[in-house]
Amino acid sequence: MASSGTSKLLKGSFLIMIGNLLFRVGGYIYRVLMTRLLGPEGYGLLGLTLPFQGIFQILAAGGLPPAIAKYVAQHRALNEEEMARQVVVTSLKVMIFLGIAFSLVMFFTAPGLQMISSTNQRPSTPSRRLPS
User: 101-120: per-residue pLDDT in tens?
Assistant: First the structure.
């Protein structure tokens, strides 16, 4: 019985490690592609928008991932697979709604944020194009 629990733990740890590795490699590829596509000036503008995007991502997630993990593990331990699935589905709906809402907030506040953060006023608003 102990070896079964240990193998589940090792399998779960391995899957988390692979997911983390894929996430990091994807972030690296994204940065390389954006640098080549946008050039130095465009990538600099993108760099100005990333802190705002990070803040909104934190707000959209709202601490849900740890709560999801806790409740899914709790329901699976009690063999309540339907409740575990319901937790995942409901939390995904909430996160998708919040993600869309904060994307709209970013889109409509981009010109104002650009005027606040930039001394070089341009006729176009590249910060509105980058986050969307």
Answer: 988 988 888 787 777 766 65
